[in-house]
Amino acid sequence: MSELPHSITLRIPFSDASLADIAKQSLEVDPVLSGDKVQLTVAVDGRYLVATCNGDTLRMVRVSINGFMDSLILVTRTLEAFA
């Protein structure tokens, strides 16, 4: 993959590392569309979920992060209800 010039990194705090890891595993199952134009990686750093999005254009990064945030909201609400 060629270098993608635009990037954003989000650090989302969770109450503990195990919940951050559950969120990571839940979010990893949805691959990013347009994989040659945008790349989204999700990792856990302590109790933080770290999402980094690299894209060919700012628009691609914005659209990918918006989709990621929609999924993250669903995951966190589910964790809130059942964890």
UniProtKB/TrEMBL annotation:
Pfam families: Pcc1. It is found in: Cytoplasm; Nucleus. Coiled coil: none annotated. GO terms for cellular component: cytoplasm; EKC/KEOPS complex; nucleus. Keywords: Cytoplasm, Nucleus, tRNA processing. One of its GO terms (biological process) is tRNA threonylcarbamoyladenosine metabolic process. Its main location: cytoplasm. InterPro entries: CTAG/Pcc1. It comes from the Eukaryota. Belongs to the CTAG/PCC1 family. PANTHER family: EKC/KEOPS COMPLEX SUBUNIT PCC1 FAMILY MEMBER, EKC_KEOPS COMPLEX SUBUNIT LAGE3. This is Transcription factor Pcc1. The lineage of its organism: Eukaryota, Fungi, Fungi incertae sedis, Zoopagomycota, Kickxellomycotina.
